[in-house]
């Protein structure tokens, strides 16, 4: 099960589609909410969107006995250098159609990375579930970093309806 596929494949697929908005990759986009990218990540005008921060913990094994510092560090560095796009983010939890964009990472304690995200879907239920603190995320394996990950609930700072104007949003709920 791939937690988030970074990935050269996804990146180049999307880069081909919208070279203007994500190319070249930049570690710290000027605006955390990149409307252009969000738009390209879903059908224009149809996407429900949330942004915010998220914590994840990496382990060497599925039994979560040992924190995997190397895998966590490499994933964080990777996000900061290349950003990360997932075209079917946590499909085990949401089903298909959720697009995740992770653009910044910080190690906030020895066991935890914090990520900044923008996530979109054409289905508002996905975004409501994403932003619920009650949605469980089963442990998942990331073969790129040989790491077992626990995704903690996502904290949405803002949510947007499909756009008629970028200003329209529901705020936190
Ligand atoms: C979410 O987007 C708003 C509007 O662009 C921005 O002010 C805020 O910093 C973003 N929050 C996060 C955590 O990315
Ligand atoms: C939206 O997602 C929910 C939950 O995954 C699903 O039950 C529903 O059928 C989806 N709606 C549409 C229109 O795809």
Estimated helix fraction = 25-40%
Taking all Cα atoms into account, the compactness measure Rg is 15 Å
The separation of the N and C termini measures: 31 Å
Average pLDDT level: 78
Structural class: alpha+beta
Overall, the morphology is globular
The main β sheet shows up as: 6 strands, antiparallel
Strand content: 25-35%
Q: What is the succession of H and E elements?
A: HHHEHEHEEHEE
Explain how this protein is built.
The protein is an alpha+beta fold and 173 residues long. The chain contains six helices and six strands. The chain has helices at residues 7-17, 19-22, 35-41, 69-82, 91-94, 124-131, and strands at 48-59, 84-86, 99-109, 112-121, 140-142, 147-160. A six-stranded antiparallel sheet has the order 2-3-4-1-6-5. A hairpin with a 2-residue loop joins strand 3 (99-109) and strand 4 (112-121). The chain is globular. 35% of the residues are buried. Mean pLDDT is 78; it is low at 1-32 and 165-169.
């Amino acid at each position: 099960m791939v937690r988030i596929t970074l990935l050269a494949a996804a990146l180049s697929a999307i880069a081909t589609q919208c070279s203007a908005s994500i190319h070249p990759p930049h570690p710290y986009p000027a605006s955390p909410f990149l409307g252009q990218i969000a738009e390209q990540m879903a059908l224009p005008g149809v996407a429900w969107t949330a942004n915010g921060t998220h914590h994840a913990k990496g382990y060497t094994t599925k039994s979560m006995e040992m924190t995997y510092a190397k895998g966590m560090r490499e994933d964080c560095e990777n996000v900061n250098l290349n950003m990360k796009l997932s075209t079917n983010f946590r499909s085990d939890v949401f089903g298909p159609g959720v697009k995740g964009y992770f653009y910044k990472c910080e190690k906030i304690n020895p066991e935890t990375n914090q990520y900044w995200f923008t996530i979109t879907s054409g289905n508002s239920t996905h975004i409501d579930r994403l932003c619920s603190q009650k949605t469980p995320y089963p442990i998942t394996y990331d073969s790129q970093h040989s790491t077992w990950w626990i995704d903690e609930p996502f904290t949405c700072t803002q949510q947007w309806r499909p756009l008629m104007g970028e200003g329209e949003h529901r705020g936190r709920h």
